[in-house]
Structures
1.
Amino acid sequence: MPESEPSIFTRIIAREIPADIVFENETLIAFRDINPQAAVHLLVVPKTGAYPSVVELAAAEPQLLAEIVAVARDLATEHSNGEFRLVFNTGATAGQTVLHAHAHVLSGALPEGTLA
Ligand code: 5GP
């Protein structure tokens, strides 16, 4: 995909693609992962598509990273028992498939013997 094309997440934010949205404010959106790996598997996504991964996001807007963590905590409390795994896949060989920074929030029954 050429870099100029909007990511799948940008298209979800623009409501061009449906998603099960569970949270939204001015800077972030959260929705259920289409291929859940845990009883609760949400994606917390900055609305800006400027950052391909959490590395660029953290360097440019560290407060946005803190906001992602706070939203993850709130969503894990609302949808599960408040305990959660926060995963940022960074780079293709680490499993990143969407080049638009995002956090996986996994809670409830997690897959055994894996970190993702
Ligand atoms: P990554 O592999 O980049 O860390 O995470 C991308 C995640 O986005 C994957 O877990 C994948 O299941 C999810 N995903 C990909 N396309 C869609 C979509 O169209 N809708 C939703 N809700 N999730 C998606």
2.
Amino acid sequence: MAEMDPVKLMKQEVGRAAAAKVQSDTVVGLGTGSTTAFAIQFLGDRLASGELKNIKGVPTSFQASVLAKKYGIPLTTLDEVDKIDIAIDGADEVDPQFNLIKGGGAAHTREKIVDGLAEQFIVVVDSSKLVEKLGSTFALPVEVLPMAVAPVTRALTALGATVDLRMGVNKDGPVITDQGNMVLDAKFEAIANPAEMEAHINNIPGVLENGLFVGVATEVLVGEVKDGQASVR
Ligand code: 5RP
């Protein structure tokens, strides 16, 4: 049998560790991305084996809802539940205070709603995502109403960012979010004050939400690969 790529193996182990923290009779926020996809798969496995019972998932994207259905996780909505016990989601950068940049999958608007309501929010990443200062490696995703792309680009540029409209994989059109909007990727040198920047950007007319998650994460599970072996800390 072909050996699994070590990075994929590591994502799988982080996803498994996060899924193991979910208890029966809970409402679970289901994040978006390749690492969380493994957590969703393992939640489905635990339900199928009977080890876990009666959970309901709140998906953060169309992608997460498709995966949840595939792995047999019953879904609910924020109209039906008054709290989320635990959320599992990936991130693109994590700073030492557990502040995050998210939105590499263009899902940060729904992710912030769901993850922010969770009593326990577990972030699943690999060690390459750990940074001293947010913004140092990853551009900040900003979801924007299509008619406001030009003025918001100018406003972000005035804040010191280099701004790109996110294009689809074939570069033949912009990425469209689950809400029907577009994403501007704003690359700063580093973001000195994430809380201030989060509020400031969300105040620009035409911005729906940006990918700074400040003070939301309660735990970060970090996967590593050493000598071809995956581990989680
Ligand atoms: C989606 C996200 C993802 O969680 C983030 O991009 C990490 O994804 P992956 O686990 O594939 O690296 O924020 O909007």
